[in-house]
Design goal:
About 80% of the residues lie in helices and about 0% in strands. The radius of gyration is 19 Å and the shape is globular. The chain has about 300 residues and is mainly alpha-helical.
């Protein structure tokens, strides 16, 4: 293993530890002032376990988790992006540590795409934290529909198969870095990075397996950074996020070291149905929010 890879893994482990400490210290201070204790429900832990289990196998966890929240009415729409980024941060750090260790990819490509995604997240999180409820509903509704279309495209083999390259150079690398920046910013809105990143690297001629350390590494670096900002602002659901983290970590470990692979086409079709329905619910909520906003001046 190269010194650069070891440094990357050490930085990732340190960032994950810092995020866990930061999360705990902020919420401990809040609990001391409010004298209330928050405990995750078994259902939240189960959602974390299932979504991060399949996330490790390449399904992605943002769209299925959002669908679960929306269908159950579990988390307020405006708090879903923060809850996703906070709750899934530690499980994804573990995913990245595993895949960066075992999957070979060009280090220049890996590091620059990760850095671009982190920069996008850093700039995007402040924007998302200030967005009104309806804007988040519209953004997440559209994102869920895009996710459903990507799942359909994957199932019917419309997506590019990719090549066998393990890295990018020149104009292709510049393009990949620019798109990674945009994907990092969109992650803060709750739009998953996995499927778009897989499509991106495949279109540019890279091996699809090389996408795993890139997309997981990007998420593992940007989610603790963005998640810490959401924790600071308090714009997330603490109980749900704790459940995602506590259930997600064992889900990742079981998928990575015990199961390793599954035939996932049937699951993608199920996700298409659930995510599409959740997207329609989110867009309907946005329409209702707009109707309420229009009616308020009339009542006044």
């Amino acid at each position: 293993m190269s010194p650069v890879t070891l440094l990357l893994l050490a930085a990732l482990a340190a960032l994950g530890s810092w995020f866990g400490w930061r999360w705990w210290s902020i919420e401990r201070a809040r609990a001391a002032s409010s004298a209330t204790r928050v405990r995750p429900s078994l259902e939240d832990c189960l959602v974390g376990f299932v979504t991060d289990f399949f996330d490790t196998l390449g399904i992605g966890n943002f769209a299925p988790t959002t669908a679960c929240f929306k269908l159950r009415g579990r988390v307020a729409d405006e708090d879903i992006p923060g809850t996703l980024n906070v709750g899934h941060a530690l499980p994804v750090v573990i995913e990245a540590l595993v895949f960066i260790t075992v999957v070979k990819v060009d280090l220049a490509t890996l590091v620059t795409m990760i850095a671009a995604a982190v920069a996008g997240a850093w700039l995007g999180v402040d924007v998302v934290a200030r967005l009104p409820r309806r804007a988040i509903q519209l953004g997440m509704g559209a994102a869920l529909l895009v996710a459903a279309l990507l799942f359909v495209a994957k199932n019917v083999d419309w997506l590019p198969g990719g090549g066998d390259a393990l890295g990018l150079a020149g104009g292709r690398l510049v393009f990949a870095v620019a798109v990674s920046f945009l994907l990092g910013a969109l992650m803060m809105l709750g739009i998953g990075l996995y499927a778009p990143c897989l499509v991106l690297v495949s279109l540019l001629g890279m091996s699809p397996i090389a996408a795993f350390p890139i997309m997981m590494g990007s998420c593992a670096f940007l989610m603790p950074i963005g998640g810490a900002r959401f924790v600071l602002t308090g714009r997330y659901d603490l109980r749900a996020a704790l459940g995602l983290a506590l259930g997600g970590v064992p889900g990742v470990l079981i998928a990575a070291f015990i199961v390793k692979s599954l035939p996932l086409a049937w699951l993608r079709w199920l996700v298409v149905v659930v995510v599409t329905y959740a997207a329609l619910l989110m867009l309907r909520s946005a329409a209702a929010e707009r109707a309420r906003a229009r009616s308020q001046p009339e009542r006044a």
